[in-house]
Write a structure and sequence with these properties.
Layout lengths: L1 E6 L3 E8 L7 E2 L11 E4 L2 E3 L5 E4 L4 E4 L8 E8 L9 E6 L7
Antiparallel strand pairs: 1-9, 2-8, 3-7, 4-5, 4-8, 6-7
Length: about 100
């Protein structure tokens, strides 16, 4: 039996785009967003999840509770969960086994 857990710190991302006279959904362009890590601003005003927008984390889409005009600037800052890979991270694990018979 072996168990390995490898995790890396979340990656911070930022997406800037303009509205299109609709509430969305708008593509964020990322899946794996850590729920609650996002900060959403429209024309400089910080919005609150639930009352200002909702995010479908598995699809990487945001939908606003009201129309966002074409001249409105949307800024979304968020963190992405990282999978194992080349960058250094934190490694924990253990291995259990039985002695081999001779």
């Amino acid at each position: 039996l072996g168990v390995i857990n490898y995790s890396k710190p979340p990656e911070k991302k930022k997406k800037i785009f303009f509205g299109n006279d609709s509430a969305g959904p708008y593509q964020i362009g990322a899946t794996g967003i850590i729920p609650g890590s996002e900060e959403v601003r429209v024309d400089g005003s910080v919005l609150t999840t639930g009352s200002g927008y909702s995010i479908n984390y598995s699809r990487g889409e945001i939908t606003f509770n009201s129309l966002v005009g074409m001249s409105s600037r949307i800024i979304i800052e968020y963190e992405l969960a990282q999978s194992s890979g080349g960058a250094p991270g934190k490694f924990t694990g253990f291995r259990l086994g039985t002695p081999k018979e001779k």
